[in-house]
Write the structure tokens for this entry.
Amino acid sequence: MTSHETQQLDDLQVGHLRHFANLSRQPINDWSFMQGRGTGQDDFGGYRFQMAYMAYALALAHRHRLPAAPGVFKPVFERFMEKMLLPEVWMYWARVSRGGSVFNAHLSDAYTEDWNPVGRDNIMYSAYVQSMALLYNYLFDDNRYAAPGALSFQYWSFFWGGKERRFEYDQTSLNQHIYWQMVESGYLGVACEPNCVFQICNQPAILGFRMHDLVTGESMAREVTEGYQKAWDQFGRLGANGHYNAMLSQDTRAVRDNAGLSPWVDAWCGTLMNMWNRDFVREHYPAQIADWLVRGAEGAMSVRSVERPTVMGQTIINDDSDFGWAATWASEMGDTAVLKGLLTHADRYMSPLWRDGGYCYPRNDVMSDKDGFRSLVEPMTGNVLLGYARLNVPDGLWGLYNTPWSKAQHHDPALTEVGVGVDVLQAYVDHDARVLNFAVRRQRARDEGFEVGIGRLAAAGHWTLLQRGEVVARGHGVQILASEAFNVRAMSGGIEFTCPSGDAIAFRLLFGLAERAAAA
């Protein structure tokens, strides 16, 4: 039990969670609020990145803030997993796989159109599917994505005719496939687009390997990170300027450094690499962030972005999300001053919006307002990264990676069902006292779904549910022995009740020894 678990979420944190859930509920191929400035889904603001990092934010919030509320996170996670497999998310690969960029045009004669989005390269997509599936298994003790074909990529159109394109994987086969690509690279990493190995995009695969290990008891992540360290020692993870090298060309072994001091390169890489290489990341963080942090008035902070480059006669239009990545990095580093400054700037100059009970920063393509303050908001920043930063805790990814839950976590009583119209502000188990503590409230923007379900009661022994210190119900296992004050009903594996209206209400479920001690 940590201090973050016992603290109630504030309104903005709850608002970010609800915005994630709202986006996950949009109909298939309704990408409202998620389309960025780039085209074709091949830039850093693509749907895959937005959904993956919302899933990561959910994982961090569940692990560190609401560990006893899987019912808040699991359905949202499942909807994002479903959307990650949609053709609209991965069809860019049929184009990108053919090469033709400044980094692989000289090799493009050797490439053919590849419709399998995880077959070769494309770690900028495959690693997110892999890590999300394995995170789900670890967090919710549910191996549904281990079923054969559970991760299938399929597309057919009567305009194109011919047979359906279908590529079937599951979390184990995809994990193994990525692992062997990593081994074959000499642990330097798997390419994003052909010939281009980015440090950043191989970090999610390492997270996936670690989740695989936590589920299976293996040590794949240790092998890969040790190999990665040795492989990159010959090139250096940092450039001569002290900032993270962005990528390596496979054919020439030439390294592209962060010569332009783009904030996203340092911040994205530092955020993720901290999970397994914390001392190295923390050693270089102060000097790196100082080179592009802008200190504003009254505690606000922003970042200095580089000019958009011109390549092959065209100015690149890309959602780099410098500001958002800076916030996630500060949150992972526990740099509360910088994180507070960035969030202060965002709330002051980036037009935050409450939408259907959710909190976000809507897209704005204008770099600065009339007074010169940064106002640019890409969907990746406004939908995802600022919410991620607010929900994260210091060393959040490091803790997820290095301090796994005990076996009891998946067996203790928990909020396993949470209605659409309910906000959960607190949910944790005090194992010493054997008490489930939680606080809930009805979402005023909703007019349905006020049920709260407490599951995993079959082995809980005698229990007593209290609301503000008053006994609400008593029972043993899944059997309700007495129900007072309001109607508590049986559900599969536990009990459910309707969340009362009004402000947040705190509940305590005393179970086992705690219940008997209280009765005595």
Notes: The CA atoms of residues 305 and 402 lie 33 Å apart. The longest helix spans residues 47-64. Residues 515-520 have pLDDT under 50 and may be disordered.
